[in-house]
Amino acid sequence: MPQLNPLDWAPQLIWLLITFGILYLLMVYVALPRIGGVIEARTAHIAKDLAAADTLRRQTEEAIAAYEQALAEAKQKAHAIIEEGRAKLKDETAQERAKLDSELGRRGAEAEARINEAKISAMREVNAIATDVAADIVRQLIGAAPPKAEIAKAVEAARKE
Asked: Which backbone phi and psi does 37 adopt, to 5 degrees?
């Protein structure tokens, strides 16, 4: 093996230094600047993407805040409309109730007046019927009918007791 021969080491070392030097110069002046440019471009692109993402995040947060505010306003308006409808319905119900109460009161008063008239009429008829029945009873008991005025007076006195 020629590599292990100590006499061949000097030219091998010289070629090693020349080759290493050329490769070093190629790396320093050609490859590394290109790699550095790519890294800088990537860094700039990543920074640009991060800035865009931050901008979009802020816009999203603003949109969410605007949505939540609009939703809250819509809920508030809906609540106001419901309360307005409830108040209107309550007023209409109260008006209907007042109308029905007045109608029922009027009908109740009319019915009470009719009942009182019927009661008075019945009481008049009761007096007449009681007078006739008393006259019949007295006639059956004693055989003679007393005068109607006396019987009516006796029925009236008995009714007052």
From this structure: -65, -40
> What does each C-alpha distance from 161 to 5, 98, 124, 156, 158 come to in angstroms?
164, 45, 17, 9, 5
Domain boundaries, the chain: 10-160
pTM listed for this prediction: 0.45
CA-nearest of 155, 153, 149, 118 to 133 is 155
Which tokens in the block code for residue 124? 């008049």
**Buried b / exposed e across 80-116, counting CB within 10 Å, b at 16+?**
eeeeeeeeeeeeeeeeeeeeeeeeeeeeeeeeeeeee
* Mean pLDDT across 142-155: 79
SS (HEC) of 68-79: HHHHHHHHHHHH
